User: Fold this.
Amino acid sequence: MYRVIKHYGTPRHSGRYPWGSGEDPQRSKGFRTQVLELRKQGVSNVDIAKGFGMNTSQLIKKLSLEKNEEWNANAAQALSLKEKGYSNMEIGRRMGTNESNVRSYLNPVLKERAGITRVTANILKDSVDKKGYIDVGLGVENHIGVSRTKLKTVLSLLESEGYKVHKFDIEQVGTGKKTNMMVLTKADVGYGELLKNKDKIRMVTDYSEDGGRSFLGLEPIRSVDGKRVSIRYADDNGADKDGIIELRRGVDDISLGNAKYAQVRIGVDGTHYLKGMAMYSDDLPKGVDILFNTNKHSDVPKLKVLKPIKDDPDNPFGSTVKQKHYTDADGKKQLSALNIVYEEGDWGKWSKTLSSQVLSKQSTALAKKQLELAYIAKKEEFDEIMTLTNPTVKKFLLSGSNNLTGFAADCDSAAVHLKAAALPRQSSHVILPIPSMKPNEIFAPKYNNGEQVALIRYPHGGTFEIPQLMVNNKHPEANRLIGQAIDAVGIHPKVAERLSGADFDGDTVLVIPNPRGAIKATSALKGLVGFDPKEKYPAYEGMIKITPKAKQQKMGDVSNLITDMTIKGAETDEIARAVRHSMVVIDSEKHNLNYKQSYVDNGIASLKKKYQGKENGGASTLISRAASQKHVGKRKEKIDPDTGKKVYEYSNETFTKVKYRDPSTGVLKETTLSNANKKGYPVISTREVKRTIGSTKMAETDNPSSLSSGTPMESIYAGHASKLKGLANTARKESISTPPMRYSPSAKKVYVKEVASLNAQLNIALKNKPLERQAQLLANKVVSTKKDSNPNMEADDLKKIKGQALIEARIRIGAKKDPIVISNKEWEAIQAGAISNNVLNQILNNTDLDKVKRLATPRANTTLSPTKLSRARSMLVAGRTQAEIANALGISTSTLINALG
Assistant:
């Protein structure tokens, strides 16, 4: 008995299979021929694709492949007939085509173009054979000289030949955002194998690594001889300048160059190092080039004052540093002993906002005013974007190329972090000691002589930690030591004590002019006077030291408690109890303190019950809860076109968690199956867990008031967050409804030179993307190695290592961002429609958007005229302060500083 399988269906009839059944229906006609016939009948690409069980992208790829194959076959036939001596006309007659097509088939240039699919495929195949895993993501096409569309066609061809294209995300080192990876491998490479070997993913084209550098980019540090270093102890007033490193002027290997101060690390004898703020001194003892000031007493040996160099040549100081070089007397380049963390000018670049940690502890009137100013600034930015005439630029600035970034995302972030507008002329400064100053004075060249300023330091406990000082810019010693400091202020050492125990090793403050007392300050808490955590809560014998991770968690816990207590009007003695405990916790790991006893003695459990609802309670006010973490299911974000709100499609993705008994302690623990396999842990039981991603409580609510406990201050912040969320939704809605700009072929011809320039710059920018992915892969591997060797690493240390690893990986790989610089004429071309929407979006992704805004909305010139600049320099030489000069010229101090360079 035979079974007969009949083919059913005829071209383009109704029914379940409108073009017939089977994997390649209606084989009596070529696929491309059928599609062309359907197009002539008015059938859209979308419907054609559906009929063949494809999406439109797959349809286009298949058409492209078949067109290439058809063209190559025709070219081969034409060439064969030509070699037999037939004329082009006769070849056309035999092939059933016209003479012009025959000429095209025989044209070597067009032949080469048609064959590029196969050539490119062979290049990728060879790369996979040699390197195993090949990056084929965005920008690779720029390296191998084909279009992105052509590369997609090639990848489709290779997939049909048994190769695999894997897509996954890697976390960007430093930002925590995701980088999309697209990797070509052989057929037998599974997803799990690829993830285990991410660091082995390579580019099609080779790059050069500088193998002479350390993984974090440092040359072997240069140490100074310990005989050149002296210690000034507390017995000799060293505590007044605790953390200050005084340097002898004119010594090359410890020269600050053009800077007057810098936060540094200096290796000593190859075993230890100094950490602090370096500045010059003119009265060092003979034979001493470096004098370190400490609050320790003279019974502490010199090496105990210094810090031991970490057993990690990649990261000997545990912080990110910039190494300096100098030219010696023989004209040779030498490595300086100074390793710079920050130097003069760096602190002034820090963000100028008021955090909720500070503002929520001030008056509701001030909070309302500064939050309203922050919202107005955002609303003005939105209104400015909406005035733009280029719809593609408008759409991009509102919500990026994917409707999920740009201005809208900034508003969402602002609603979570709740930062308010800065007060007038507020700025960050590093503090330096001037013991001869009066305790109620400050040397601050950016501010007016005689005006009152308030100082705020983070972490900020409350108004009792805010000193109010009078500016004295005529102080002789301060002028001699730091002069026209850009971002440093000089204070009496007693002021540092008021600033929650600050020292002078690089601690910073917000300096805020406060002539009318808008910033409220209260007297120092009596409960903190004379309190020394190290003396009150030393470790007992056999006490287990707190881990860095646990310290960080407990510090966040008590910080939230202090915030909640302040907002809810706690008594000063209660605040003092919580602050004392926070002082113990913050030093618990460094000095091995008994933080558990402090928790009991200061009655923290009862404070938590009173102000957070229960003894083990957590954040209880909107201010402390807004940015607290919330885990949600893994999902994809989309936008509701009617409201602009984000909507989510949740996946049901899970992973396996296992229970195991720790071989060293016998304690029952839980981890992931992959980690258990990696570590070789004996598995006791398993369970499937839904995969989640991290978010925040504010981000996950449409009603910020739901996070509030009902206080007036929280109501102000809730209203501010609601307005920001509404503005974000409006921006997304406007973005979706904004039509793309119309491309103008005629404008492209007019601006041919400008279009060519923009395309050339874009090509360079896109070439960096694969290099950047390689750098991210390398940096991830380095960070992973460091974490494995030090699993209890503090979050701050991990952050520093991530930064160092990425900087060095970029140097090794040669990844370097070359932002596209848009000239006025090129902007004119963009406005005329000479660039397609797709290309323009890519340009916007790789250029300075602030400049784009300036091009789109020209502003008044804020630079100084040559006359004013000359006058400013003359006044500076005459000893006038920056603030005095700025006032005299009618400009801001920031404009003055920028003009002076």
